[in-house]
Amino acid sequence: MKQAGSKNLFSLNNRLKRLKRDSNHWAILTLVLVGLIALPVISIGIKLFSGPGETWGHIVENLLLDYIGNSLFLVFVCGFMVVLIGVSTSWLVARFEFPYRKQLEWLLILPLAIPSYIVAYSYAGILDYGGSLELILRFFGFDFVRIDIMNKTGLAFVLGISLFPYVYVSSRAFFLNQANNLMEASKMLGVGEIKSFFKLILPLARPAIVAGLILVLMEVLNDYGAAKYFGVSTFTTGIFRSWFSLAEPETAVYLSALLIIIVFGLILLEKFQRRKIQFSSSKANSQGIHRRTLSKRIQYLIFSFVLLPVLLGFIIPVAQLIYWAFLTYENVFTSSFLIISLQSFGIAFLTAIVTVIVAILLIYFSKWSRISSLKNIAKLGVLGYAIPGAVVAIGIMIPTIFIDKWLIGTLDYLFQIQPGLIISGTLIALIYAYVVRFLAVAFNPIESTALKVNDSIPDSSRILGVGNIKTFFKIDFPLIKTGILSAFILVFMDVIKELPLTLILKPFQVNTLAVKAYEYASDEMVMEAAIPSLLIILTVMLPVIFLNRLLVK
Amino acid sequence: MLQIELLSKSFDKGKNFALKDVSFHLKQGDVCAIVGESGSGKTTLARLIAGLETPDAGIITIDGKIVSSTNKLVVPEKRKVGLVFQDYALFPHLNLMQNVLYGISKDKNKNERAEEVLKLVGLKEFKDRYPHQLSGGQQQRVALARALAPNPSLLILDEPFSNLDSMLRMQLRNEIFEIVKNTGVTAIFVTHDTQDALAVADEILILQNGRLIQKDEAANLYTKPKSIYVASLFGNTIQLSSDLQSAFKCPLSPECCHAVRNENFAINAECEHVTHAMVLKKTFLGHDTRLLLKLDNGQQLTVLTKDKVVEDRIIIGFNSIDVLQFTS
């Protein structure tokens, strides 16, 4: 009977038959893209089998505990600090009316515009002997007590004060959308403001807070510049040491693998906490937000409290940089500085374009393939953002050097041509690495705007006889333009700020603003680092304001 | 024209089937309604025919060409099927003319054709407007015009009226199907509303839990439903349990498979099978009155009636000709 067939529809044989029918070229292209993006991690995994380097034993005995201890210390102290600052400030701006609230609401995002290594440079300058704090204290006739910031506690402070906006942004979004109705319900039941906050709002806001916190912790593990400058040994500085000073790639690979495990542990933790409790918003707040107005005295208290992180995370470091800029501009503004700036912007521009294109390809290829599980595989491509820049760089170095060796050998054998390095040590490797690292930054805004376009719209286009690619250009693209634009801006900003990955992979003759600032600071010329730093901050700040406007609309 | 053989689709690797072993065929020019509750698989069936979903088993043939089987799939853009979506899916950044032109951009007389179909749906003077400037009913008609423009061999309308209020719905339903019938296109109309289906379709397919349980002409479906489920889709139906059979003194066999439609019960009138009943409760519903009755043998029965019932004790009955007999 024919009917019998449907019973073993899901036998292996029938599944394979359908898989063969459903594998179109889009499915294959999706897999190729994901493979290219996963290549760095895969390379590190394969390289592990060639054994650890000679110094690995020495590192395990003498340094590894230090790396783990310091990295964990930073993760915990920073984590505590960013939650404290991020949640308290976002709650205050979401629930209370006070002077300059609107301005402070977006000023609180600005610390993100300063890369943490630059915050580190400026605080070191402020608190040093003969630094700004001493000058100011002496001017007012006070004695100067030096606060030593060049240690792991100081590093935790610097990272925390520059990274708390991640938590601020994610928890503010939750408070603005959800908290109003919940607080009203809670008050109707006779529960006071403070008790409602701790009993009701905080547990509900947890997924949002943790989402922001995880981003902070990844940045903490990614940091190289600040830790290096403060002389704190972390995983990232360890990777740099074994790669450059010890010239032992195997050891760098082993440290990278350990760091990848730690990062994926964090991601799993986040997924786990999110899965256990899933509070989806029942309905976004539609009546607008009613902020409480308290007595003038308390309003000014709140104002000062909210102003403090803005001062510490943005205004004070920038003021120090501006002061330094006045002292050094004659030495720094040269034609070579102009070239560095142009290179920096050029690389960021090119990378942003490539990354946006790859993100679009990944989203739409997996959508056009008929195999539904490919959408989840495409999402794997986004994990690059979790992997510290130094690790991505090592992971790119391994296969590109391998390919170059093979290419050079083959070309020499076949045509007696001796080209230099073709991929490794060129812009191709650098941009490849940036794409791997920042793909998520482009993927998320594009995907979320693409999700807002109902599937029936591109489906209609197909039904009317228009193929996938043409449908994309005629229908999808005009509808997701804003997502693409914000993706472009976000990647551009991230590339301008990026330091560790760039340091490892940049070609000799190429330089970026971030690397220049780092080089000045390493060469005991931290004052000269001010101008490239200010240029980075300015470049990043303008789009931050622009994007904030876009999102508020 | 359209032939479907043992079509199956599961979204969870065989645990549940959205569609299971569905087979039927349509002739050129047929207007067929697919009726089912939500989750019955009717939209999945429409999407499989259009090529937007991949079947796990089965063969779909359109105009003698196999478009879907276990080893071959024709992409939606090559199937010559027109589809009107539930949410209309008009392109928001294109005006009406551009929307209608979209599927016929390669035709020689594309502008004439676009104006022709816009005129057909009575929206020619709106051709420069954008979708958001139109009412729901107008958007619906544009979606129809856009789907008809390329002369599809098969037109599918997926719940086209579910976003409209009931007054507009009836009017638009008749308008749209007059247009569809005049063009002579073979059409499939997916709906959960049996009234809509009866009003416009020559043939009706009933889906339940992914299975095709009956396919018949509209009138037959009403008079000869194959199961109590199909019967109740077209109105309140009372199954004749053995207790009811004894109350009305009409022994039937087998006792499981008989029912009478609510409207065929008569109160205080001459009938073949009657019984006395006490009125326990009367609920006034405007158009109808709901009666809770206690029959002579103690059995309770709820019926709706248009009659004014004033007595506390009534005679209720039905004729044998109105007894529905189910085959399953």
Q: Which features does this protein show?
A:
heterodimer; A: 553 residues; mainly alpha; two-stranded parallel sheet; 23 helices; 1% strand; globular; disordered N terminus; B: 328 residues; alpha+beta; 6-stranded mixed β-sheet; 5-stranded antiparallel β-sheet; 18 strands; 31% strand; elongated
> Please, what is the average pLDDT of chain A?
87
Number of contiguous helices of chain A:
23
Helix content of chain A: over 70%
Percentage of residues in strands of chain A: under 5%
Structural class of chain B: alpha+beta
Beta-strand content bin of chain B: 25-35%
Radius of gyration of chain A using CA atoms only: 26 Å
Q: Indicate the overall shape of chain A.
A: globular
Give the SSE string of chain A: HHHEHHHHHHHHHEHHHHHHHHHHH
Widest beta sheet: strand line-up of chain A: 1-2
What is the compact description of this entry?
The complex is a heterodimer of chains A (553) and B (328). Chain A is mainly alpha-helical and 553 residues long.
Q: What does it look like?
A:
The complex is a heterodimer of chains A (553) and B (328). Residues 1-6 of chain A have low confidence and may be disordered. Chain A is mostly helical and 553 residues long. In chain A, α3 (56-95) crosses α8 (165-188). Chain A contains 23 helices and 2 strands. In chain A, strands 1-2 form a two-stranded parallel ribbon. Chain A starts with 11 loop residues before the first helix and ends with a helix. Chain B is α+β, with helices and mostly antiparallel strands and 328 residues long. In chain B, a hairpin with a 2-residue loop joins β9 and β10 (211-217). Chain B starts with a strand and ends with a strand. The mean pLDDT of chain B is 89. Chain B is built from 9 helices and 18 strands. Chain B is elongated and about 75 Å long. In chain B, α3 packs across α4 (136-148). The A-B interface holds A 2-3, 5-6, 9-10, 14, 17-18, 20-22, 370, 454, 456-457, 459-467, 474-475, 478-479 and B 6, 8, 10, 13-14, 20-21, 50-52, 54, 56-57, 70-73, 75-83, 85-87, 89-93, 102-103, 146-147, 150.
